[in-house]
Design the sequence.
């Protein structure tokens, strides 16, 4: 809008697969819509779309930093659920890139 400070928005989409090191455990809601049985080891495949908004005059290179964080968290951390993985990725992005004002993750 007129008179507002311009912000830069960026995005990244990626399909990821993990053959071990993920599960579906301690899910708090178990109801008729829950179709997966709890297990500590399962194949994890998902498409993750990330979007973020940067402060004006943010330093370059945020795309590669966000991509690195996503790949590291996905490949190195045990994932008890997709929701936990998305939370951890978002938290790490905000902690490691202070010029990001907001981040959106969707799977």
Sequence:
């Amino acid at each position: 809008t007129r008179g507002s400070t311009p912000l830069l928005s960026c995005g990244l989409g990626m399909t990821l697969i993990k053959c071990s090191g993920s599960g579906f455990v301690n899910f708090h809601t178990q109801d008729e819509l829950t179709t997966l049985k709890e297990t500590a080891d399962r194949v994890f495949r998902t498409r993750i779309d990330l979007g973020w908004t940067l402060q004006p005059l943010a330093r370059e290179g945020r795309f590669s930093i966000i991509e690195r964080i996503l790949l590291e968290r996905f490949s190195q951390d045990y994932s008890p659920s997709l929701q936990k993985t998305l939370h951890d990725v978002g938290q790490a992005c905000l902690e490691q890139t202070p010029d990001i004002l907001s981040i959106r993750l969707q799977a």
